[in-house]
Amino acid sequence: MRITIFGSGSVIPEIGKVQTCVGVELDGKMILLDVGEGASSSIAGSGIDVNMIEKIFISHTHADHFIGLPRLLQYFKWRNRTKPIEIYLPAKHIDAVEKFLAFLYIFRDRFDFEYKFLPLPEGEFFAIENLKMKLFPTKHLKKYKKYTELYGIETVSYGYLIEEVTNDGVNLKSFLFSSDLHSVDEVKDYLDGLDLLLIECSHIEIEDIIDVVSDFYIPRIILTHVSPDKDLTTMTEYARAKFDMNIQLAYDGMKIEL
């Protein structure tokens, strides 16, 4: 399993940084986790064959996790994609996204490939062969609950737990991508046995991450979605010295082999 961080930026725009987008590749097939602003440029720069991207998952529709999707579809068209693709996102938002695309002059009959919007799956499922996923809910959007009835929006965001398994179901490698969190405690139940933790550090503090993660052995910890006003140098050095953590900051184009 290979993870590519196409976008590591936070909601705050930064020169030379793409917003959240993570690719997970196994046996020549890839899924995307979130598609923030600039994702298509990062994917284009990587040189990958766009036909290897099988599915796209959107944890929530904050712009820095979603707004790159229209341009990505247009990029697929420009690269002459013909293979169908499934795009999973919060169920209540599917109709609004379909209408939004039309206002961007993105029409299905002008594409040579089929794209299908589907609700985010529940429970464990296989995203592609031998790649098992589970989406776990977070309270990142809870402050919007008062708008639920007025606008018909979802107020649950999701993180991603992903495992590479054998044909017999034996777990080979596992990693967690938090997407956006309300509290680091929301990932605590999933940390045991991880090979990689990719965790945001914009809405939560590094001190809280270290406090929770230090109770587990995780071979590699990568901080992503870091606000540019945060200097994490002191605390990452502390984590390495105190707990022997293999902790580092994400960057666009970063590749991790598991």
Low-confidence stretches: none
- Per DSSP E runs of 2 or more residues, the count of β-strands stands at 14
Radius of gyration: 18 Å
Oligomer: single chain
Structural class: alpha/beta
- Spatial gap, N to C terminus: 5 Å
Percent of sequence in beta strands: 25-35%
Please tell me the overall pLDDT: 96
Please, how many helices? 7
- Biggest sheet record: 7 strands, mixed
Q: Considering DSSP H and I runs of 4 or more, what fraction of the residues is helical?
A: 10-25%
Please describe what this structure looks like.
The chain is an alpha/beta fold. It contains seven helices and 14 strands. The chain has helices at residues 39-46, 63-66, 69-78, 94-103, 148-151, 206-213, 233-243, and strands spanning 2-7, 21-26, 29-33, 53-57, 85-89, 115-119, 124-128, 131-138, 157-165, 171-177, 196-200, 221-224, 247-249, 254-257. Strands 6-5-4-3-2-1-14 form a seven-stranded mixed sheet, with helices on one face. It has a seven-stranded mixed sheet with strand order 7-8-9-10-11-12-13, covered by helices on one side. A hairpin with a 5-residue loop joins β9 (157-165) and β10. α1 (39-46) runs parallel beside α3 (69-78). The longest helix has 11 residues, at 233-243. The model has no long low-confidence stretch (mean pLDDT 96).
